[in-house]
Amino acid sequence: MRKIAVFTVILEFILPAFAQTPSGDEILAKIDQNQLYDQAVSTTTMIVHSRTGDRTIQSKAWSSGNTKAFVEYLSPPREKGKKMLKLADNLWIYTPEPSDRIITISGHLLKQSVMGSDLSYEDMMESDELRNNYDAKVLGREKYIGRDCWVLELRATNNEVAYHFRKIWVDGERWLPLKEERFAKSGRLLKKTEILEVFQQDGRWLPKRMTFKDMLSRGDGTEYIIDSIDFNVNIPEYQFTKAALRK
Predict the structure, then answer these.
(1) Gap between the Cα atoms of 174 and 178, Å rounded
(2) Closest CA to 181 of 164, 196, 160, 206
(3) Taking 60 as the threshold, does the pLDDT of residue 15 lie above it?
(4) N or C: which terminus of the chain carries fewer CB neighbours within 10 A?
(5) pLDDT range class, residue 5, cuts 50, 70, 90
(6) Which domains does the chain have, with CATH numbers?
(7) Residue 129 and residue 52: Cα distance in Å, rounded?
(8) Which residue, 187, 185, 182, is CA-closest to 213?
C-alpha cells in the first residue's frame, strides 16, 4: 500500500508537467503571434565585426505586415541614401550617386551579404510565418542564459526556404527564439543567431540586441540592435513603391 501511495504522489507531480507541454505547432504559433504586427517604423544599428575591423551601419525601416518593407540607410556617409524595398517575393536596392540606379535582387544574388554583414538578402526576405514553412518537434526543455526554454527541431515543408533544418531554443514565457542554429539541406550548419537582450513594448517581448554569425564567413559576427520601434503608426502606401526609392 505504501508503494502504491508513493507512486501516486510521483504521478501527481509528473503527469501535470507532461500535460502542460505544448506541441511544436503551438509554440511556433506563439512565436509568430509575438513577432508579426500590422505596421511599424523602427530605427536600428548594425555592427559588423569583420577581420579588418568593425563597421557601424544605421538605418530606418517602415514595414507593413510580413510582406512589405522599406529601408533607408542613414550612416555611415558611404552608405547614406541607399534604400531597399521588399514587396512579397520581390526585392529592389537603390543606390544614389554616382550610379543612381535600382537593382532587382533575385536568384543567386539573394545569398549575398547585406552591407558586408552576416545577414543575407534571403534572411531579409523571410516573411512567411514559421508554421507555413516548417513542421516542429519538441525535443525537451533546457536552460539558456538563465531562461527556461523549449528546444525545437524544425523541418522544412517548403523546398524554397533558405534553411531546411533549424534548431531553436524558445523562451517559454516570452516566446522569443533566444538561440537558433540554421542548417542546409545537406546538414551543414550555415548560421547561428542569439538574442542577448530583450525589451517589452505594447504587450509583446522583442529582441533589443541580437547577433548573427555566418558559419561560412571568417568574421566575428554581426550585432543587430533595435534602437526604437513604433507600432502606432499609419504608413502611406506610397512608402512601399519603387517611386519612393528615388524620393
Answers:
(1) 10
(2) 164
(3) no
(4) N
(5) low
(6) 24-246 (2.50.20.10)
(7) 36
(8) 182
